[in-house]
Amino acid sequence: MLRDVLGKTFRFLGYTVQYGCIAHCAFEYLGGIVVCSGPSMEPTIQNSDIVFSENLSRHFYSIRKGDIVIVKSPNDPKSNICKRVIGLEGDKVCTSNPSDFLKSHSYVPKGHVWLEGDNLRNSTDSRCYGPVPYGLIRGRICFKIWPLTDFGFLRASPNGHRFLDD
After folding, report:
1. According to its UniProt record, which residues of this chain constitute the active site (predicted)?
2. 75, CA 20 to 30 Å: which among 2, 18, 145, 149?
């Protein structure tokens, strides 16, 4: 009797560890569901929208300009932020705010990306903390899950004019 109970307990623990490892690998390497908060990505992503983020792009270095990514915050490593990629390494980017009269430009250093929120007037992004190391990217947002009225792929940047092709 004791042997049966121990056998079932160890089998249950073994399956729990096994499925836990599979779930961890799926969420770490394939992707997962993310709840976005804050106004920085409005109107593309509203506060409390639920999105699907895939993680394979960051491993294969296939993040492109215009992609919306989940990134470890450079200011607070315990939190993640959601921003749009405006520039990749070597790209020339506008580093000033839209309201600035004189525009300043800079080049994104090797191994970094330039991130901005779609809501330029209410976003803490690379204009504040500078270029972000590529290694902080956690995943790329593929599509919106919730609310159902907005289900599907995300729209293009309302700030497309900020992408420079120099």
Report:
1. 40, 83
2. 145
CA-angle at 113, arms to 119 and 27, nearest 5°: 85
Question: Which domain CATH number covers 106?
Answer: 2.10.109.10
- Residue 129: half-sphere exposure toward Cβ, Cα within 13 Å: 17
Among all chains, which residue has been given the structure tokens 């200011």? Answer: 75
What's the predicted TM-score (pTM) here? 0.76
Please, what's the b/e burial string for 11-31 (b: 16 or more CB within 10 A of its CB; e: otherwise)?
Answer: eeeeeeeeeeeeeeeeeeeeb
Instruction: Yes or no: say if 131 and 107 are a contact pair by the CB < 8 Å rule.
Output: no
Place of tokens 């500078």: 130
Domain contains 47: yes
pLDDT digits (tens, 9 = 90+) for 87-134: 898 888 877 776 677 777 889 899 999 998 888 888 888 888 889 999
By annotation, the residues acting in catalysis are 40, 83
Q: Which of 67, 47, 45, 42 is closest to 121 using CA atoms?
A: 42
How many domains does the chain divide into?
1
Residue 10 lies in a domain: no
